[in-house]
Each structure stands twice: as structure tokens, then as C-alpha cells.
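We include the pair:
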Amino acid sequence: MTIIKKENNMKYKVVPFIASLDPKKRTSDNVAIQLENLINDLSNQGWKYVRLESVTTFVNPETGCFGLGAKPGYMTTRQMVVFEK
């Protein structure tokens, strides 16, 4: 979680959002409820929802011990929820 303060006295909070899906139902209803709960929880703390951002980053490769178990690097995307105050 990161809080950034700007000159205009606005504060921003960025919270990672990783939803969990029921493997049997596989509907997005539960994901929507999880996001709604996160937004409502932070709104109750005085934060205003701004947007949901996708952040793509590179995960560095792992060398393993003497090259055994080495894993290549890869790109991954994370969802971040942005709030302001």
C-alpha cells in the first residue's frame, strides 16, 4: 500500500487488488463483490475511489542453486485500486 502526497494537499492511496474466484462457479459476481467491499471499506475511512489500474512489470529470473531449479523471467500484470483524500 502506497500513499502519495501532492502539493495541492491531495493524498493518494494505491492498494493491490487480487480477487479470488470460486473454481466451481467461475462467475465474476464474487469478484465484483470483493472489489465493492474494498471500495466501501476505504470509503468509510474517508478515501474516495478514483480508478482501477493495471500495472505490468517484469519478474526477474531465478538462477537456482548451481543452475538447478532455475526459472526464467516473465511479465505479469497486477490490478491496483487508486483512492484519493
Notes: Residues 2-84 form one domain.
